[in-house]
Amino acid sequence: MFKNIKTIFFDFDGTLHNGKKVYIPAFKEGYKYLVENGYADEKEFSSQEVAMWLGYNEKDMWNTFMPNLPESIQKKASKIIGSTMDKLVEKGEASLFDESIDTLKYLKEKGYTLLFLSNCTESYKDFSIINFKLQDYFDDYLTAERFNNIPKEDIIKKVMSKYKMDMVMIGDRFHDIKAGKENDLYTIGCSYGYGSKDELKEADTIIASIGELKNIL
Questions:
Q1: Residues 154, 12: contact at Cβ < 8 Å?
Q2: Where on the tree of life does the source sit, at the highest rank (predicted)?
């Protein structure tokens, strides 16, 4: 199935990067701002409750989480979340999943075109590139912010003509599988990430660790 793959779209958080380490404390900082300014009631969130928002772009996250919150306040809270994540990455508190770098190196040496595709900000992407030396592996970095927060499937649609077929989308959330399927790409679901088993049921195959890609591609 995957023998003719030339181009690989990689989700980041939950696929290569253990994003919970920086997202959970950042989310809590953003929510703290909402509570302190009277826009939300105090609440203790479990790690699982917070991690469910990993993989959403900013617009979809707020439309699902607090749709009645004024847009200006959504943006203020998002800025707090984003800047907190950036600071934590810069301080070295973020980490990739085991075998992420080895797998990227293997795929790059095999001649695949590797594309970073994430519902993140440009600054978060930039800090991650520096922190993890991702410039050694990826050919381009496609972020939600760069494309005005359009869905991943629309980002792929805009750029796929630049790259060689066949292509595969790799990710841990339903957004990733949907993005691949809507563009007739092969899809690989990551069961070790933050999505439920049900989110990955349409994937062509499922991996339990990023290192398994070396046996597939």
A1: no
A2: Bacteria
